[in-house]
Amino acid sequence: MGLNRNRCLSNFFFGQDQVETALRFMAAGKHMGKVLIKIQELNGFLVQDKAVVASMVVAEKRNKSDMNNVVDAVLNILCIKDLKSINPRTPLPELGMDSMTAVEIRQTLEREYEIYLTVSDIRNLNFETLMGMNNKLMENNYSHKNDTNQVLSIINILKQFYDEMSNELAIPLKTNPVEGRDEIFFLPGIEGYAGAFKILESNIKSPATCFQFQTNYELKTIEAMANFVLPHILERLKDRRKFMLIGHSFGSLVAIELARMLEVKGFIGRLILIDGAPQYLKKLIQENLRSSSQEELENNILYDIINAYESGKDVELELELKKCNSWDEKLNAWLNVLSPERKELFSKVDRRNVIHSVYVRLRAIATYNPDPMPYLRAPITLFKPLFPPILNASYDYELQDITEGKVDVHVVEGNHTTMLCATEIAMAINGELFECAATIKKT
């Protein structure tokens, strides 16, 4: 009996390469005799009265070096050695893709290349489409790099220099509140002003307040900024125990710290973070303001700002900065390099201080360490842009490392700044995105 059992096990062993080859043959309307014989023999074994069959699936170890681009990654998953051997317009299911490899392809595209496709998209996918995706991804790498530089070169950050900036700490947003909804709280990006939320506020169905950091460069850490805002939130929470915090970019860090402080006091809440998280923003700074010292960081910030407003002045600024021994001297040197019309714009005290406060906040991101804090209990909804400033960030920006609650991740149209136009963000704030998802699930 034992000998027979061993013979059966030997006969019924399927190597992955055999199965994949068989699938491709069968997809082409052919069959492999050897595999067919094994299936027939296995069928006879299974119909016995006391058949015992065990199987084991061993995951194939794929080499990341085989995933240089989107096309190579999918070729590798489908075990196709040469793209020239197939018709690029042939749908992937006809090339041997089954439900398991479809899942692997989908997860690989999401994890490695941040390409998000539906099940239907995957089913209709072919290599011609994949080549188009790969070309677009390569083109976007250059524009994304410039996009990222804009995020930290403060082209977007300093847009409000052309507007009147409010000096109020708490700014009521012009929302369209529905009766019975509680007030919610917004924390702005590194610029520190509520203006960024103007494109979003009219779609919000709750009363909302944005807490501005303004040009307050005395608040040098994330914890200090959260402590500064906390009393004003507590005053507005009054008798209720629930809160919702929405943070954009830099404001996400302050929102996380505020949530921790509120939970210690017994409050229960929810966080909506718009392209922001501690490790993600640290990486963003490291990649775009590569600095080995504080002095170099100061210089790089000023180079970025001068390039945003006065092209061709960076060489002159570099010479001037070499003569400086302090940040204040560097800021004065930066102002002196500006053209007369720009100098008039930036010479106002508040607008000069914005540059100083941006520098302080960039340093606050670099030094912020959320690890010692107790785990949050609040669930987090993270919104990421379709065109992210960092292509190799982890899927959830490592937010699951700081909360016991669930982390939901959504990708929306736009970049780090323009994503605020996405209707999904307003829907999530209103609680409609989750209601919509629940309805779809039921149907």
From TrEMBL:
SMART domains: PKS_PP
PROSITE patterns: CARRIER (PS50075), PHOSPHOPANTETHEINE (PS00012)
Enzyme Commission identifier(s): 2.3.1.85, 3.1.2.14
SUPFAM superfamilies found in the cross-reference section: ACP-like, alpha/beta-Hydrolases
Domain of life: Eukaryota
One Pfam family from the record: PP-binding
InterPro entries given in the database record: AB_hydrolase_fold, ACP-like_sf, PKS_NRPS_Biosynth_Enz, PKS_PP-bd, PP-bd_ACP, Ppantetheine_attach_site, Thioesterase
Keyword Nuclease: no
Reaction it catalyzes: acetyl-CoA + n malonyl-CoA + 2n NADPH + 2n H(+) = a long-chain fatty acid + (n+1) CoA + n CO2 + 2n NADP(+)
Residue ranges of every copy of the Carrier domain listed in the record: 65-141
The protein, known as: Fatty acid synthase
Source taxonomy: Eukaryota, Metazoa, Ecdysozoa, Arthropoda, Hexapoda
